[in-house]
Amino acid sequence: MTRSENTEWNPDDYDLWYEKEPGKTIDLIETECALSLLLPINGKRVLDVGCGTGNFTKKLSCLGYDAVGIDPSDEMIKKALKKGLSCTKGYAENLPFDDKSFDAVISVAAVEFFSDRRKAISEMLRVVKKGGKVVVCFITGAWAKYYKSKKSGALLKANFPKVEDFLPFAEKAKFCLRSKPGKNVDFSNEKTVEEAGFACVLIEK
Ligand SMILES: C[S@@+](CC[C@H](N)C(=O)[O-])C[C@H]1O[C@@H](n2cnc3c(N)ncnc32)[C@H](O)[C@@H]1O
To answer: Does residue 71 line the site of ligand 1, with CB under 6 A?
Structure first.
């Protein structure tokens, strides 16, 4: 199963991916990578852009942050709300929040679906406080090729970025998911120099 087998996001299928292997281990590997750039945060209020069913929003809440998610999919948001998370409907390109209203902003595996990536990044930078972090994480390398080759599901609409696309804004980048699609996904592969399948870039305001 891929991250979604349906042409529109299906929240139950989506969450199932995180509950079974290889999704379970991939999630742990990607979470460690994302948090290594995001933490520490100077403050408590964090925005999760393209939050889906709230997978990362929930992790931030569990860590004690005042996490808010935003996503355009009614179905995904409905499921996130059922988990007791604070989520709202909206697009990355037009965030319904005041300037400098968050201490940090994260976006996980969602930039691939934004219609205007530059606008979305400028919106994330607008809503974060001065000195705050914006972390954008996305699928890349062999995993991007694998999802493209599936030719089905909501991932059909994905436009996988290259790390170079972020070079004009990024301070730092971290890479992970060095296990290849179809092979055993294992933390021990993270110590190798294999091509990464997931990248996180840090943009500081
Ligand atoms: C692969 S899911 C990632 C969900 C979540 N971040 C996670 O890590 O589980 C991609 C999400 O991006 C959302 N999305 C698509 N276009 C978007 C946009 N323009 N602005 C914000 N989110 C968007 C989709 O609705 C979907 O929930």
So the answer is: yes
